[in-house]
Input
Amino acid sequence: MKQAIKTLGVSPRDELETATMRQVRWRILPLIVLLYLIAYIDRNNVGFARSAMESDLGLSDAAYGLGAGIFFIGYVLMEIPSNAGMYRFGARKWIARILISWGIMATAMTLVHNEMSFYIIRFLLGAAEAGFFPAVLFYFTLWFPAAQRVSVLGIFVMAQPVANALGSPMSGVLLDLDGTWGLQGWQWMFLVEGVPAIVLGALVPFLLTDRPAHARWLADDQRIWLTATMDAENAAKASTAHHPFLAGLKDRRAWVYGALNFGMVCGIYGLGLWLPTIVKGLGDYSNTTLGWLVMIPYAAAVPCVYYWSRRADRTGKRALHAAISLTTAAVGLLGAAYLFSLSPVLALIMLCVAAIGIYSAIAPFLSIPSAVFAGAAAAAGLGLVNSLGNIGGFVAPYIVGLIKDTTGSNPIALTFLAACLITTAIIGYLYASRRPEGDATLTTQGATQP
Output
């Protein structure tokens, strides 16, 4: 065996690394991706319920936009405290807590009966789900070396377009259950799509492992190698590795990347919450058919996300890949906005381009702050980045709703989202491309300078 390894030019250490990381991926990623898929369906399914809820509850475009976006106010307020809990109690217990509480609030959406109850339950849903995404980012810093993290994040982020691709037709079918057992179709949708989070929350403590040193499912040599590798990587981040939780909140880089994340999230959630409405303009379709049409842009994004994240890992140019993706997304949104009146089919194609750009930007971008922080400061810093970013999840749908109420124009609303994305692409590239976390090909000299 050793002779075969030598002949192939593969050292025993390389073989150990490959075998270890393959096992870690198969153990961790399927479950984490499934959890995020469910989270994304539960936060975005309100977009499919919009027309029915407006009809049943008398919501205006602005009221819908406020209710859809207020999710992120609760999310942002509880994000950093939740990440502190993650660091204090560990991944298994805290992610389980998040899952069960958000599943309860997701099913509680069936109780909405007016504007105020819509606002309250959406706010509580955001507060319940707070901390999940940065907790996963932090969890990945414990298990995956930085050189492999963009690819891992790419697989994780694929849950977003996959969730929308699967959630679109599923939500359409559930909406067509209108009147069954005395429930409206949108109530069935919230009920059925909220229960899986509760079930999986009860299973997570038995399926996740907090740290490599606790992984009894790894062989002894694999566990020792991975623990030593991650400890060495964290020690190299000298400016934050030994700092307390609050150090991550004081780091200027966390605020800069959080502000940039705000611009990216505006595009992500603005598109996600309004895409069903935009696609419905293609014709008078049933809820089920609408769901299949909405699936198309998200399905187109999935293979591109995987390819682009692997390419960013291979080249190390994370900032460049994120900027190209965000620019592509902006072009797609503008094309959809101004081609719609000429050809709905061309507009749908441009929405596919927008979805590809938006979702392929996430992994390269979020790998940048993940490469900066370690230890307790990572829990705080990544929580701050995600908190500031998710303010965009409130701002985007609310402003889009106001624009539509004022002008009745989808093109103007999409132009606003495109402007957010292109501005983020330019500023993000200028800031991060000159820094080692944004371009791994640069020397690590000065990497820890804020």
In short: Residues 23-432 form a domain with the Growth Hormone; Chain: A; fold (CATH 1.20.1250.20). The chain is about 80% helix and 0% strand. The mean pLDDT is 81. The first helix runs from residue 2 to 8.
